[in-house]
Model the fold of this input.
Amino acid sequence: DSGVTQTPKHLITATGQRVTLRCSPRSGDLSVYWYQQSLDQGLQFLIQYYNGEERAKGNILERFSAQQFPDLHSELNLSSLELGDSALYFCASSDTADTQYFGPGTRLTVL
Amino acid sequence: SQQGEEDPQALSIQEGENATMNCSYKTSINNLQWYRQNSGRGLVHLILIRSNEREKHSGRLRVTLDTSKKSSSLLITASRAADTASYFCATEPTGGGNKLTFGTGTQLKVEL
Done:
């Protein structure tokens, strides 16, 4: 158990809808990262937050947004969902060191 | 886009044998990390090697890094059925913050 929690575990929704994925980092970790894992794109970095502020951005679509709250939990919002957004979404957290600890992921299925 | 390419894509060995996986990457890095992923589940951090290190050990794991060739290898000795998983290398690029760029992964199957 990495100490990172993600909810929900599974999400099934329809095209055009909007969903929110939630992540609670390990106690004391200030950085939160979001990754997407799909069959065709592999594991891709989406975005990083550090202590509430956006730190780095990767291949994140404009339809996607994230934020980190004062209690350090983070949410990833996915809107106008398309079939291709079906994937595993991982959250990871780290302190000042290099190692990132990954949560169990949220499996999103868009029908 | 993925920076790393891993080789082989899939590997099947008998329990007790050693497994070697290779990773190549494209840019300068601060460190390279290896992760394990059991089918469709979260990634588990295995080992981190910094750019100024050449070899590192952790239990049955041995990692090498050759920055001149931009490559790394992961050796799992005396493999067990429980080692069956996908293994990914991930690089932290120089000046790229802490974001990780993952390789394509190697699927390892250890048979009894």
Chain A touches chain B at residues 2, 4, 31, 33, 35, 41-45, 48, 55-56, 58-59, 88, 90, 92, 94, 98-105, 107 (CB under 8 Å). The two ends of chain A are 31 Å apart (CA to CA).
